[in-house]
Amino acid sequence: MDNISLTEHEQSMQLYRKLIDCLDKDLLSKLHDRLIVADAVANTKFDAGQPIDDPVREAEVIENAVRNFPKSEDYPTPTRRILTDTEIRRFIKTVIAIAKKVEKRVMKHREFERKYKTNRIDKTK
Questions:
Q1: 58 class by beta-carbon count within 10 Å (0-12 exposed, 13-18 middle, 19+ buried)
Q2: Considering its fold, how many domains does the chain have in total?
Q3: Taking the CA of residue 85 as centre, how many other CA atoms within 13 Å lie in the half-sphere pointing to its CB?
Q4: What is d(CA 46, CA 40) in angstroms, rounded to the nearest whole number?
Q5: Cα–Cα distances in Å, from 42 out to 80, 91, 117?
Q6: Checking phi first, is residue 54 left (phi over 0); if not, alpha (psi -120 to 50) or beta?
Q7: CA 111, CA 104: separation in Å to the nearest integer?
Q8: 3 state DSSP class of 21
Q9: 107 exposed, middle or buried (CB, 10 Å; 0-12, 13-18, 19+)?
Q10: Which domain holds residue 58?
């Protein structure tokens, strides 16, 4: 490999790394948006007296992700599919687990608020 090829290779790698950095930033921004929605979901569940866990909805979200992930005919790639269905499920299950942690924190905070306000009102009587 001559110096020109190595330089071209390094330039390509720099470009790809910048692209990955931008995509990671977008991915984290979308995750942040999703967690904001999880916060709102937790407040709604708390107000309605519903539990955090909803296995039917979680299964629906997972299967939607598998179904909506781009297929090989949607983009040019040497592989048939970049992620397997199992890998997509694992990724989405991780996202759901993170969202449920947010929901649990919200629920815990809301329960604390409820108890604190109740105790505060009772003490003033």
A1: middle
A2: 1
A3: 5
A4: 10
A5: 38, 21, 19
A6: beta
A7: 10
A8: helix
A9: middle
A10: 28-124
Q: Dig out the tokens for 43 from the structure.
A: 């407040």
Task: Place 116 in a pLDDT band, splitting at 50, 70 and 90.
Answer: confident
Instruction: Give the residue carrying structure tokens 């290779």.
Output: 9
List the one residue out of 88, 96, 86 whose CA is nearest residue 53.
Answer: 96
**What is the DSSP secondary structure assignment for residue 49, as one 8-state letter?**
T
User: What token pair was written down for 46?
Assistant: 């708390």
109 lies in a domain?
yes
In this predicted model, what pLDDT tens digit does every residue of 10-35 receive, in sequence order? 999 999 999 999 999 999 999 999 99
**pTM for the complete prediction?**
0.79
Domain at 81, CATH number: 1.20.59.10
- 114: in domain: yes
Residue 3 within any structural domain of the chain: no
